[in-house]
Amino acid sequence: MRFIEYGTIKKKAINRFALIYPDFYKAGNSNLGLHYVYNIVNQKENFSIERFFMDFERSIENQDMMKNYKALLFSLNYEYGVINLLRILKRNNISILREKRDNHLVITGGPLNINPFVLNDVFDIAFIGDAEKSLIEFLEVYSGLDNPKKQIDEFGKIKGLYIPEIHKENKIKRRIENLEYHPLYEPIQWGDFEESFNKTFLLEITRGCRSRCSFCLTGNALGPYRERSIEELLSIVKEAEKRTKFEKIALIGSDMPSYLGDVIFELTNLGYQISLPSLKLRDINENTITLLGQDTITLAPESSESIRFQVGKCYKDEEFFEKINLIKKHSKSVKLYYIFGLPGEEYKDLDEIIKFIKQSRKIIRTKSSFNPFIPKPHTPLEDQIFDYPLLKEKMKYLSSNLKDVRIEDLKGAFIQYVISLGGRDVGLYLIDAVENEKNISYSSLSKAMEKGEIEIPSSKKEWKRIEV
Ligand code: SF4
What we know:
The protein is α/β, with parallel strands linked by helices. Among the domains are: 5-173, Rossmann fold; 197-277, Transcription Regulator spoIIAA. It contains 15 helices and 19 strands. The strands form 6 sheets. It has a 6-stranded mixed sheet with strand order 3-2-4-5-6-7, with helices on one face. A 4-stranded parallel sheet has the order 15-16-17-18. Strands 10-13-14 form a 3-stranded parallel sheet, with helices on one face. Helix 11 links the parallel strand 16 and strand 17 (365-372). The longest helix has 17 residues, at 347-363. 41% of the residues are buried. The structure holds iron/sulfur cluster. Iron/sulfur cluster is lined by residues 209, 211-213, 216, 218-219, 254-255, 313. Iron/sulfur cluster (SF4) binds next to helix 5. It holds the Pfam family Radical_SAM. Keywords: 4Fe-4S, Iron, Iron-sulfur, Metal-binding, Ribonucleoprotein, Ribosomal protein, S-adenosyl-L-methionine, Transferase.
């Protein structure tokens, strides 16, 4: 297989860091947060950073081994990343427990640090919240130290950093930045390695969300809504063109601005194909759909109409159908995202969902996918329980009434639930399992819960120490 990337930074520096995405290249290289860190560290004098993925055990840039880097920066976006992080350290003969590690600084960042306490005994430093400025401040301090691992206190004054050895009890405020900086070097694959967004430049148009759906981390905990102007977006693209090569642009953001149509118009005028990973119902109009020219448009009805209103996503079924009829004129299919098991959901709600999908299929080719509801910390639904037997019943009901739908594996979702609402006890359990090559599965974790070895949700709710 040919590996051809444009936008790769190959730099020699005294301070060499590893940037590790604990998943495969396909997922990781399509993560914008990773590109932020890659650009910020590489643009600092005397520093370089090289990428690792689970299918690339040596660095992409220099094919070097992970243990040869001074600091290991992990990007944590999904719960499975926690288990993968532990396995990666073990595989590279790097001590998992912080107290046993002499040489390497292990640093984590990303949205999963909304609850960093599962890995409390592992990392030296966790970046909490937006890191574009705290990372620069960290590098400043780092460059003045002889032995950063032993002089960890020196980082204690940087806002947005959680350092377990220093911050024993106090609260840590999530750092929030305005949208100013944007990475320009995005390594983009032109060879045979797939990415989630192929040959695509990721352009962050907004951050945060103006809605507050009660199940959603973004709306409740990841900071207020911020947006970039059209002028800024165009200038980022023009600068990026000088540094990397792409033929599409994906607009990244959970909530789109009122001028979305103009942005798409300007960017298509530059000759790019534009994609939007997901669109809110109100953003769908004749103009946007025509300009996008996407074969498939993704919508997220989430649940039945009444549950949808209860969780704060206030769209009626008929509004969805108006848009599906519009989409039909310009695109070939719709993808519908659902969450099942939300509080208050009854079988009549599942019947409504089934009816909705069947009705949509009469209008346009419809793919549907279901994820079980996994409570997230810092959301109004954080105290909800992942009721495995009930969810299993509901899953069976859905699959017996609907053909060709994708339903996420419940056992895997249970593992995510444990990590999402866990505390240090979960981390120590996982460390022991990885160290001793024990299985981490639905049954091992539920047995550990029964025996009282781990407590889910953690009654201490240590994540409340993170101020959002
Ligand atoms: S589910 Fe979507 S609309 Fe609702 S808060 Fe989250 S990002 Fe916003």
